[in-house]
Every structure is written in structure tokens, then in C-alpha cells.
Amino acid sequence: MRFFTLTDYPVGLPDRTLFTLETQTLPELDEGEVRIRNRWLSVDPYMRGRMSGQRTYVAPFELGKPMEGGAVGEVIASKDAHFKEGDLVSHMGGWRDIAQLPASGVQKLPNIDVPEQAFLGVLGMPGMTAWAGLNLIAECQSSDKVLVSAASGAVGSLVVQLAKAKGCHVVGIAGAEHKLEWLASRGVEAVSYRNKNAEELERAIAQASPEGVDVYFENVGGICLEAALGQLNEHARIAVCGMIGSYNDTAPAPGPSNLSQLVVRKARMQGFIVADHWHRYADFLDEVGPQVAAGQIDYQETVEETLERTPDAFLALFEGANTGKMIVKL
Ligand code: NDP
Question: Are strands 33-42 and 325-329 parallel, antiparallel or unpaired?
């Protein structure tokens, strides 16, 4: 198999040279193991945390060992009764072309008529994150005015569409012009954060959402959070999903100057990790799966090709080079 390892823990934006492609001959399959030819690899912002060398909610990548991540592939050999050659599966043995894993870490793809790679994006971990954050953490209701940062990304693009489907007024923050256009095409008020300070961004949000913000789905942090805090309505809920804007910082960024708005607005801000809500995956799939299959949810993908380009795809996430889910096609 060919796989990527990390040679050192980066400080700041990871250097491309820290990712090394290595080759290894796989041992014979043990009882209870499956061998999978990966067809699609996921690269996700949370992987930056695994490159920090410190345990967060998941252990860091081990230097010199195969990196891990979501992947979809085809079973090519099996010594487990539940899997046979040809089965399409998802698992965490990404960043490599062939994965050999205990069957307990492998799931057959659900029987929904969508392209297989959708289970890395809109019907996989990012989709589940959007659904859980909006419904279980922010407790979003149809009357809510909703604000979403990184709104055209893998998580954000489903958040805005689920909120629209509930009947909410939705504002999305994004960078590039084509992302703003995509948001507008889904009936979302689009606001760019580019070339703005927190005050200017807050003014743009106020214009796009004159009745304030009841739910803020936080993916970015920094000036997005500061601007959102200034526009909160009473009893607003902030679902803190991630803060990608600071993942490559080498020193802690100063906190939002207006955090006290949480007090004034009697608002609630709550972080969450999608893994804690995974027991609700079947509910998510029941609700969102048919909408995706019927084409009611528009999910974008940005596709890099070949295993060699996996680190480039990952690094491009921090430049906003993706619309929707960033994936690698092998
Ligand atoms: P995205 O598909 O949204 O890709 C990242 C996007 O973030 C980029 O396209 C870019 O969009 C934006 N971005 C990158 N750097 C910056 C920056 N410095 N300032 C502002 N925007 C930036 O990624 P995901 O949908 O996979 O993840 C979104 C967030 O959700 C991340 O914070 C991630 O860590 C978090 N997450 C949390 C989970 C949990 O369990 N809590 C699970 C999954 C994801 P643009 O062009 O608009 O700037």
C-alpha cells in the first residue's frame, strides 16, 4: 500500500514537505480483517488538530505512522463474515490507497441512491455535524433568524439548506464571489467577510438580517464571532462547531471584545463534537438522505485527483479553495 505519514508536527500553516508518501507491503489478512481499495479520501479541517502533537478530543497523528481519515472504497478481500469482495464501505483508513482494517471499524454504505462519495460529505460526518449542530445544539425553530459562517463549505452548505427548509431567514458568511452566488441561488442572504473588520462585517450582517440573529452556527471564529455577537437577539443560541480561522495560529488570538453580549442577550454558546451524537446518525439519514437522493439538497464537491495530491487538498481548505466538501479521487 501507499500511504502518507507526517514527519513532524507543524507550527502555523503546515509545510507541504511534512507529508511523506511511503510504500509498504501489507501482511496476509488476519481473521476478522478486511482489505479495501480506497476510491475517495476525505480531508477535513479537524485533521489540523491531529497534527498539533497534543491530544484534543482525538489522539494526535503518530509521526512516521500512516495518517488516518474518512475514506470510501471497495472491499477486495475479506476474512470477516459480514463483508465480501465488491462491498462498498466507509472507514477511517484514509490518506492511503489500500486499507487493511478490523471489520469492526468498517461500515457498509447505506442503501440510498446517491453517489458513493456523498457519504464523506453531505450524508457523512460533515452532514451529520450540520444536522446535529442545528437541531440538537442550537435547537433551531422555523421562526429563527439564522447566521452561518463558512456557509458554502461541507458543513455550512447543509446547515443553510436545512435552516431554509425549516422556513428560517438565513444569512451565510463566505469568502469568494462564486460562493456568495451559490448561497444566493439557495435563497440565502450572502455576506462576504473579505476585506472587512468586525465592525464592517457586523454592519453587513445587520443589513442582511434586520431582525437580528437567533441562531449562529459558528465554523470560523475571529471577526465572524465578534460580528455575530453584536447582532444577537435575546435567548440566541450559538452552536460552536469549529473555529477554522485560528487553526494555524501560532499564538492565541485575542478574544472577541464583546463576549459580554452573551450576558446582555441572555444567549447560550455551546460547543459540540459530532462523535457524541453519532447514535442519532440513523435519524439524520432518514431525514436528509431522501432529500439528497431527490435532488432537493444541492451539495457541492471540490475534487482533487490522485493520492499524491491529498496533502494539497488538505492545505487548500485553509485558503478557502473548496466549495462544499473537499475530497480526493483515487
Ligand atoms: P469547509 O468545507 O467549510 O472548508 C473550510 C472553509 O473554511 C474554507 O473553504 C473557507 O471558506 C473557510 N476558511 C478557511 N480558513 C478561513 C479563515 N482563516 N477565515 C475565515 N474562513 C476560513 O470545512 P468543513 O465544513 O469540513 O468544516 C467547517 C468547520 O466545522 C470547521 O471549523 C471544522 O473544524 C468544523 N467541524 C466540526 C466538527 C465537530 O464535531 N464539532 C465536525 C466537522 C467539522 P471561505 O472561502 O468562505 O473562507
Answer: antiparallel
242 Cα: distance to centroid of ligand 1 (angstroms): 7
| Helices then strands, each counted (H, E), the chain | 9, 15
Q: Is the CB of 242 under 6 A from ligand 1?
A: yes
ipTM of the complex: 0.99
Q: Do 261 and 240 fall within a single domain? A: yes
**260 alpha-carbon distance from chain centroid:** 29
Q: Where do runs of H (alpha helix) occur along 125-246?
A: 125-132, 154-166, 177-185, 198-208, 222-230
89 touches ligand 1 (CB under 6 Å)? no
Task: Take residue 317 and report the three cell numbers written for it.
Answer: 481548505
Task: Give the tens place of pLDDT for each residue, 263-304.
Answer: 889 999 999 999 999 999 999 999 999 999 999 999 999 999
Residue 39 belongs to domain spanning: 2-120+300-329
Of 242, 260, 275, which closes a domain?
Answer: 275
Specify whether the CB–CB gap between 129 and 192 falls below 8 A.
no
Do 25 and 154 lie in one domain? The reply is: no
In a domain, 294, yes or no: no
Q: pTM of this prediction?
A: 0.96
| Short-list 98, 109, 115, 121, CA closest to 43 | 121
Computed over every residue of the chain, the mean pLDDT equals 97
